[in-house]
Amino acid sequence: MENKDSKSHQKSTVRIKANLQLFADNGDKTEKATPRKRSKAREEGQVLQSRELNSAIVLLSAFVTLRIFGQRIYEEILKCLKVAITLYPTKDGLFTIDGLMDVYSETLITYLIIAAPVLVVVLVAGVVSAYAQVGFLFTTKTLGIKFSRIDPLKGLKRIFSPKSLVELLKSIIKIAIVAYIGYVYIKGEAINVLSMMDVDVVSTAAFLGSTITNAAIRMCIALVVIGVADYGYQWWEYEKSLRMSKQEIKEENKEVEGNPEIKSKIRQKQRQMSMRRMLQDIPKADVVITNPTHYAVAIKYDPEKADAPIVVAKGQDYIALRIKEIAKENKVEIVENKPLARTLYNTVEIGGKIPPELYQAVAEVLAFVYSLKEKINK
């Protein structure tokens, strides 16, 4: 009685452990995402991207362009102002609605032309940066309305979630680093401000513009470095969000490959069809080589269609017996050759050619069969 209770207790313990293991496998997402999961996430707009890096590259491109074309932009703006001040007052009807609109439109076009290099560079930098991270992606699923986004409770949870705290910490660190770099550079240039006391206003403005631009470029380079680090963090977050449990992988495999039972039935049907085709080809064979009970291999040789004899059927035990029965019914010669039958069965697939090393042995069998047919015909 105690032994029975002990055995039942052991069985229940094993069952409980198995259930707990299954539960653990279902809940713990420890496996890397499959290509199918990654493809679905991409279609839904869930991609690996660092907005910090995008913004930093765009800002750096803008300030570098300003640094390169700054002198030209300054000259063009100065020219535009001179024209507006000296030329337009001499025009008739300047202070009418039409006159003011002319001034406004011409000035606007001039400023757009001046700003064009910066705008083009910023646009190209933004597109290239986004494409380098995400590639080409067009999806409307991210535009769908999700009522969970306007739920106040879920909104509060998102605000005070660990991810939000991490983002806040990142922002504080980023601001501190960038502010420190800008402060150090401007402090180093502050000594040159005293030398600008006796310089004209234009030179002073040029100095200040150059100093501010250089400081901004250095700060943007720091932002790019921070953006690269953020990209690494976003990669870790992205991979973590895509992780799958073992059960999810099993379910996905079922969806992709089909139910194992259905697959088994399909394979069984395929084997049956292959078997029927093989048995139908036996009457066309020239000879069946046996060992004599366990193996049977049917061979056909047609010099006009193939340069070597072909195995049209082969089988073991019951199938070998069935091959011999069909061969007898259709008056196909059966030759016993144990080593050759076993070698052919193990080395040549159905529909395959006889390998060169077996040419001699098979040729002797075929020659024997052809000689028997000639005697019978005579």
From TrEMBL:
It is found in: Cell membrane. The keyword Membrane applies. One of its GO terms (biological process) is bacterial-type flagellum assembly. GO terms for cellular component: plasma membrane. Gene3D superfamilies: 6.10.250.2080, secretion proteins EscU (3.40.1690.10). Keywords: Bacterial flagellum biogenesis, Bacterial flagellum protein export, Cell membrane, Cell projection, Cilium, Flagellum, Membrane, Protein transport, Transmembrane, Transmembrane helix, Transport. It is a multi-pass membrane protein. Residues 1-46 are annotated as: Disordered. The chain crosses the membrane at residues 108-139, 168-186, 206-233. Required for formation of the rod structure in the basal body of the flagellar apparatus. Together with FliI and FliH, may constitute the export apparatus of flagellin. NCBIfam families: flhB. This is Flagellar biosynthetic protein FlhB. It comes from Acetivibrio straminisolvens JCM 21531. The gene is flhB.
